[in-house]
Amino acid sequence: MNSIAYKYGSGQAVSRIEDVQLLKGLGQYADDVVHAGQTFLSFVRSPHAHANISGIDTTAAQQMPGVLAVYTAQDMHKLGVKPMAKPVNFKRADGSPIASATRTILASDRVRFVGETVVAVVASSPEAAKNACEAVVVDYEPLACAVTLQDALAKDAPLLADVPDNVVAETRYGDHQACQGAFATAAHVVSLDITHQRLIP
């Protein structure tokens, strides 16, 4: 193996280059930047993995000191903010288009994961924004949720996608029949399940 391949090969340790600056107190973070007239944004996030939103009351939050604006999905719609674009390069196994549920910047009628943004508050300070978020009242109707991939693919799984099998998209490569043939004639076949965190490459 040549030195170039070794230096950049997969699995090689990569030295951190930011530590010296951070240890000397020379790092800069978002909270270190202050501009005249700066405002701050905070979100009310869903505590539920899956639930219908039956009501949102922002009256108290709007009247709190330092609050400049409180936005819900309805407000975003009135402002002309469109739903997030769906990927166009993914399809289901049968060639049909991706079946992802329509997603908006702020959840409108249903939340589909813990932490999904429901209300946005803009205020003159971080404290004012956070306090106003705590004053927002959101009425949720909890729904059944699927925690694992196996749960989501079960026949009686709660549906999160716009299709009855919860499969948003499926990517396949190579010759499926040739692969199955290779397994069928192999002397030994090993099967195992590997669980890891969600990845977004």
The helix tally amounts to 7
Alpha-carbon Rg, integer: 24 Å
Report the major sheet: 3 strands, antiparallel
Structural class by SSE content: alpha+beta
CATH topology (level 3) name:
Aldehyde Oxidoreductase, domain 3
The total of beta strands comes to: 6
CATH superfamily: Aldehyde oxidase/xanthine dehydrogenase, a/b hammerhead
Shape: extended
- How much helix is in the residues? 10-25%
Number of domains: 1
Measured distance between first and last alpha carbons: 28 Å
Describe, in plain words, how this protein is organized in 3D:
With 201 residues, this protein is an alpha+beta fold. It has a single domain (36-185), classed as Aldehyde oxidase/xanthine dehydrogenase, a/b hammerhead (Aldehyde Oxidoreductase, domain 3, Alpha-Beta Complex). Helix content is 23%, strand content 16%. The chain has helices at residues 3-8, 19-23, 59-62, 73-78, 126-135, 149-153, 176-185, and strands spanning 40-45, 51-57, 67-71, 110-111, 117-123, 137-142. The mean pLDDT is 90.
How are the SSEs ordered, and which strands pair?
Layout: H1 3-8, H2 19-23, E1 40-45, E2 51-57, H3 59-62, E3 67-71, H4 73-78, E4 110-111, E5 117-123, H5 126-135, E6 137-142, H6 149-153, H7 176-185
Antiparallel strand pairs: 1-5, 2-4, 2-6, 3-5
Briefly say what this structure is:
The protein is an alpha+beta fold.
Structure characteristics:
extended, Aldehyde Oxidoreductase, domain 3, 3-stranded antiparallel sheet, 201 residues, alpha+beta, 7 helices, 23% helix
